[in-house]
Specification:
Blueprint lengths: L3 H18 L8 H38 L4 H29 L10 E7 L3 H22 L2 E9 L5 E9 L3 H5 L4 E7 L10 E11 L13 E6 L7 H5 L3 E6 L4 E5 L5 H24 L5 H7 L7 E6 L4 E4 L4 E3 L2 H7 L3 H19 L1
Parallel strand pairs: 4-9
Antiparallel strand pairs: 1-3, 1-5, 2-3, 4-5, 6-7, 7-8, 9-10, 10-11
Length: 357
């Protein structure tokens, strides 16, 4: 595919952005200014990558011409240079391709992750806890902030459900592939016969919504307060800090009791509600996606089985792209999701590039 026409459009767009950014009036709208500044940075990075790619492609072409030279020493040097250039050219090409794709506005956003134990009783709750720890360690590897907004632990160290907020650079871009049913196959600690059990946990990753994304009318809400449950000493028993928010038109209910302050729990609950309503809005928009892309990134629904974690075989399999790796222990205990997510991104990018042709 010839990228030059698309690159020229981005050059023109960069000039427009620089004109807009030079206008002091822009910064009266902080959200708009931030959006344009991010687009300006991404466009600059794309054009730098493009210039580097063109230069390295020319270097590689020159090196190929020398590989068959009669001077053996020169041929060896050219072969060594080519071996060094080719992987970097492939990486640059992929980066340029990704940058040229129509951008999903939510990819820059922070994300909420909602985890729930599925079928399997206590073992499902333990697995949900394992996933929670895996995502926390992955966030740490990327330098993101990981904040538990609400959680319902069980008596054996697992979680019936949990909601976390992950904030940082392009969080939703990397975590969006995690929505769906995660299946685990292993021998539970409570199993005396050594039999392998199958349990599930569900994950929903929601882009964090802004107030302008969805309109929530006060008359559509019923907000109740109650006493928090679980550990917490006298404060739990004496104050009504927990908040339940009902969105009457959709039937969505959000409960928050993680904070000691009723006000903070209400703010957190509204943040979660806004994200869920935004997700509903986006899922309607996803109907316009190609069937192939919907199959790849999924509907984001909790009913869709996306991945199997087979501990006896140390195997991790993502069913959407047929990816299998035998390093499950490392992925779960250290949060090493980079390779899997890179494969998901590559597959999505390939499908989207086909749509552009």
């Amino acid at each position: 595919m010839d990228y030059a026409p698309l690159i020229e459009k981005r050059r023109a767009r960069l000039a427009e952005l620089e004109t807009q950014i030079a206008d002091p009036a822009l910064f009266a709208d902080a959200a708009r200014a931030g959006e344009l500044m991010r687009e300006h940075r991404r466009t600059q990075e794309l054009l730098r990558d493009w210039e580097t790619l063109l230069a390295e492609q020319q270097q590689a072409e020159d090196a190929r011409a020398l590989v068959s030279a009669e001077d053996e020493e020169m041929a060896e040097l050219a072969a060594a240079e080519l071996a060094e250039l080719e992987p970097h050219i492939a990486e640059l090409t992929e980066r340029v391709q990704y940058s040229l794709l129509p951008r999903d506005a939510t990819e820059d956003r922070d994300a909420l992750i909602e985890l729930r134990a599925g079928t399997g009783g206590d073992e499902a709750a333990l697995f949900a806890g394992d996933l929670l720890g895996m995502y926390q360690r992955y966030a740490e590897r990327r330098g993101w902030k990981f904040e538990i907004l609400d959680a319902a632990p069980n008596d054996i160290g697992g979680f019936k459900e949990a909601t976390v907020r992950v904030s940082g650079e392009e969080v939703f871009r990397f975590l969006k592939y995690e929505s769906g049913v995660h299946r685990v196959q292993r021998v539970p600690a409570t199993e005396t016969q050594g039999r392998i059990h199958t349990s599930t946990a569900t994950v929903a990753v929601l882009p964090e919504a802004e107030e302008v994304d969805v309109v929530i009318r006060p008359e559509d809400l019923r907000i109740e307060t109650c006493r928090s449950g679980g550990a917490g000493g006298q404060h739990v028993n004496r104050t009504e800090s927990a908040v339940q928010i009902f969105h009457l038109p959709t039937g969505i209910m959000v409960r928050c009791e993680q904070e000691r302050s009723q006000l903070k729990n209400r703010e957190t609950g509204m943040k979660i509600l806004r994200a869920r309503l935004f997700e509903m809005k986006q899922r309607e928009a996803q109907q316009s996606y190609s069937a192939q892309r919907r199959a790849l990134i999924g509907s984001g629904g909790r009913e869709e089985k996306i991945r199997t974690y087979n501990f006896p075989q140390n195997r991790l399999t993502d069913h959407r792209i047929g990816y299998t790796a035998y390093n499950l222990d490392i992925v779960v205990t250290t949060g090493a999701l980079e390779e899997l997510i890179a494969h998901m991104q590559h597959a999505e990018m390939a499908e989207r590039m086909e749509e552009l042709q």
